[in-house]
């Protein structure tokens, strides 16, 4: 079998076809700099209410069940009264649910409904020592902006990382690994 240029035509192997498909999918899910980009537009009530206290976490960071429990418990939102107007709760809840992580494995229970307890977060941050999260420049694992300069835009790629202030020499060496 020959193609139009008279060069031998060799069909791609199954593994080459899978690799090519993965590259196509990766291109659709990443921006021009290779970082994951938000697939949803943040709605104004979510940004106004939620991002007033912390970054506007992307709805795909948690399954719908977790978002539902978080929205139902705003009176005691991690020790803070984050009560909202019922209309805002309904609008934000519907938006979070529609854009939540819907992968089957994500539907498994997320401890304490915390993004920082999800399997992917733990896996991505496994080399970070507990003391790093307690640094004054970091404060907690949920302070994404301490290291991820694009976290407020939904960009968590490794190319836009910065070292938080206060790392020990050993922690700086681990950071550069």
Which features characterize this protein?
177 residues; 7 helices; mainly alpha; single chain; globular
Radius of gyration from the alpha-carbon trace, in angstroms:
21 Å
Fraction of residues in H or I helices: 25-40%
Order of helices and strands: HHHHHHH
The number of domains: 2
**Number of alpha- plus pi-helical segments:** 7
Query: Unreliable stretches, pLDDT < 50, 5 or more residues?
Result: 1-38
% residues in beta strands: under 5%
Distance between the termini: 49 Å
- Overall morphology: globular
| Main sheet properties | none
**Count of distinct strands:** 0
Mean pLDDT: 79
Coarse structural class: mainly alpha
List the SSEs and their pairings:
Elements: H1 14-29, H2 44-50, H3 64-72, H4 86-99, H5 119-124, H6 130-133, H7 169-175
Helix pairs in contact: 3-4
Task: Note down, in words, how this protein is organized.
With 177 residues, the chain is mainly α. The chain has two domains: 80 residues, no CATH class; 53 residues, no CATH class. Helix content is 36%, strand content 0%. The chain is globular, with a radius of gyration of 21 Å. 11% of the residues are buried. The N terminus is likely disordered.
In short:
The chain has 177 residues and is mainly alpha-helical. The protein has helices spanning 14-29, 44-50, 64-72, 86-99, 119-124, 130-133, 169-175.
């Amino acid at each position: 079998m020959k193609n139009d240029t008279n060069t031998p035509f060799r069909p791609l192997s199954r593994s080459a076809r899978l690799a090519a498909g993965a590259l196509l999918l990766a291109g659709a899910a990443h921006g021009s700099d290779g970082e994951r980009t938000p697939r949803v537009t943040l709605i104004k009530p979510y940004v106004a209410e939620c991002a007033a206290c912390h970054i506007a976490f992307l709805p795909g960071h948690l399954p719908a069940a977790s978002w539902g429990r978080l929205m139902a418990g705003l009176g005691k939102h991690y020790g803070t009264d984050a009560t909202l107007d019922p209309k805002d709760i309904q609008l934000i809840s519907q938006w979070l649910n529609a854009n939540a992580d819907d992968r089957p494995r994500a539907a498994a229970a997320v401890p304490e409904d915390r993004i920082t307890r999800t399997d992917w977060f733990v896996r991505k941050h496994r080399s970070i020592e507990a003391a790093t999260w307690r640094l004054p420049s970091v404060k907690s694992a949920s302070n994404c902006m301490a290291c991820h300069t694009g976290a407020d835009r939904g960009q968590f790629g490794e190319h836009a990382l910065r070292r938080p202030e206060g790392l020990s020499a050993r922690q700086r060496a681990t950071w550069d690994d």
